[in-house]
What does this fold into?
Amino acid sequence: MYPEDRVLIAYMPRPSDFELVLAQGWYRIPQQFAPKGLYAEYVGFYFGRNFGAQKWAVHYYGRNLGHELLRRVDLLPDEPNHPRAAQLYYKVQLGPLIQRPEPILSLRWRRVLFIHTTWDRFEMARELNDLFIEGDGFVDRRFAVLRDGEESAEC
It folds into this structure.
């Protein structure tokens, strides 16, 4: 893990979705809502209100092993009649999930779909706003997030 490694924080709405990540090692993102940062080296999960005492915090993260584009019905074949069964989703493959020693808390409720940050911020963060901190000791977050695969960002 390097300070400039990119971390994508993704919203996890339901415990059943998180159980799927734990059991099968992948997370789904609708193509129409996908962030630019699918090339992030790590993916962390921000738990929504359905997680009880763990809600509104980032407790787990995993290494991003790659992604592919599939129809929802191919990802979740037990739900062939779902209204979005034919829509395209990114299937983000993950390495084993790691629990943070201390969660990154949101001190107030906020609507989060995705947050782009860097490993140095993710590692030191105690509160969600810490993922955005600027300063001489941190990697340039905008430059790191714009770096996609083989492409490079130029300022």
About this structure: The beta strands are 6-12, 26-30, 42-47, 57-71, 88-94, 98-105, 114-118. Residues 15-24 form the longest helix (10 residues). The domain at 6-146 is CATH 3.10.590 (ph1033 like fold).
